[in-house]
Amino acid sequence: MAGKRIGVVLSGCGVYDGAEIHEATLTLFFLDRAGAEAVCMAPDKPQHHVIDHRTGDETGETRNVLVEASRIARGKISDLASARADDLDALIIPGGFGAAKNLSTVAFDGPDATVDEDLAALVRAMHDQGKPIGALCIAPAVLSKILSEKGVTLTIGDDEGTAGAIRTMGNVHQESHVDEIVVDSANKVVTTAAYMCQASIGAVGEGIEKLVREVIRLTQ
Amino acid sequence: MAGKRIGVVLSGCGVYDGAEIHEATLTLFFLDRAGAEAVCMAPDKPQHHVIDHRTGDETGETRNVLVEASRIARGKISDLASARADDLDALIIPGGFGAAKNLSTVAFDGPDATVDEDLAALVRAMHDQGKPIGALCIAPAVLSKILSEKGVTLTIGDDEGTAGAIRTMGNVHQESHVDEIVVDSANKVVTTAAYMCQASIGAVGEGIEKLVREVIRLTQ
């Protein structure tokens, strides 16, 4: 049996302006260990901004989301705009502020956020085809916006502000710990809080390992 | 018992011009899972160059090794120049071209490479104090240069050119597979080939998990 093809949507390279590196890497690691093939993709557009990760300050540089994300993918990555749901068995969206600033405007607009059109179209197509979708950290809020008013159950841990935004979007928030996942079997949506919690990389990895396993199980 | 403090020397953020992201992240992951504390550090200096990881081309940008490495460390990182062997129980150097271009000139000068002076001083001090040192991927060649003519046994997998350079430096190269480690117990040096081999992230992780375990064991 050929391995399942799982799309991994990256949003740059670095927790404060891109994809959270540990979450993205551990997603790729556990997918490979489970015998699945990761298909990395990212939007070909400028990042919202560039942050010096030591200080939290903007640097004034301009960087491209796809180019930076290709660092995590070791160059093996394609433009999100060319992704087709027919070619994938499932989709996983790691977190980091890139999900909330580059893939969407969730960081700035909360429940009124807009979402990258290519991502929204891909997620809707996957959902329409009954294929599982996983999201980590803040990415469940982006997923919630795309699947507004569908009553999907998701988790972002225990941050009340973000949980409230998810409820305003017409979905259900379930509190969780970092090493847990929340599974909405009817919608085939699997989420884990990851670094939305103050947690170590080992604890974050526990949740991601469970999420990857469950996403793959739901492709059966 | 407090966890061991293990220095992790980063060299940027991205396989072609910095620290290999998967190797660095999995090192942090397995250290945390083993109950050790990772102490991330990198030199505060410009990268040799910046590479577009999709194309392999130089971009002409200027980036700082410490600033980029802080993406992998989620901001929790210090200047390599301020690191002291007395504060650490062991040291691990992940690979990526950053080790061969930013931490040293191994990529350009092979056995005649120069090495970042702060790194060389730290490694010599750790070695003099009998503390274990781990190195991944191409980093064993950098370690070999620092510990020239000491007859240390290391591995970089099976790349004959790099193996020859290690022998020219007065050390011993031992071939290995990606999921293996080579342990020089007398010198307390542990190495694994990681992405020097054509391998999946899962296989690379196997070698890194073994390396981390052995480095911690040797601190006893």
Walk me through what this model shows.
With 220 residues, chain A is an alpha/beta fold. Chain A has a domain at 5-135 and 200-217: Class I glutamine amidotransferase (GATase) domain (Rossmann fold, 3-Layer(aba) Sandwich). Chain A contains eight helices and nine strands. In chain A, strand 1, helix 1 (21-33) and strand 2 form a beta-alpha-beta unit. Chain A starts with a strand and ends with a helix. In chain A, 60% of the residues are buried. The A-B interface holds A 13-16, 18, 21-22, 25-26, 28-29, 32-33, 52-54, 56, 61, 66-67, 70-75, 77, 195, 200-202, 205 and B 13-16, 18, 21-22, 25-26, 28-29, 32-33, 52-54, 56, 61, 66-67, 70-75, 77, 195, 200-202, 205.
Percent helix of chain A, as a range, is 25-40%
Radius of gyration of chain A: 15 Å
Structural class of the secondary structure composition of chain A?
Answer: alpha/beta
Number of strands of chain A: 9
SSE topology sketch:
The structure is a homodimer of 220-residue chains.
Chain A lengths: L4 E5 L11 H13 L3 E6 L22 H8 L5 E2 L10 E4 L3 H5 L4 H4 L7 H12 L4 E4 L2 H8 L6 E2 L5 H9 L3 E2 L8 E3 L4 E4 L8 H18 L2
Parallel strand pairs in A: 1-2, 1-4, 2-3, 4-5, 5-9, 6-7
Antiparallel strand pairs in A: 8-9
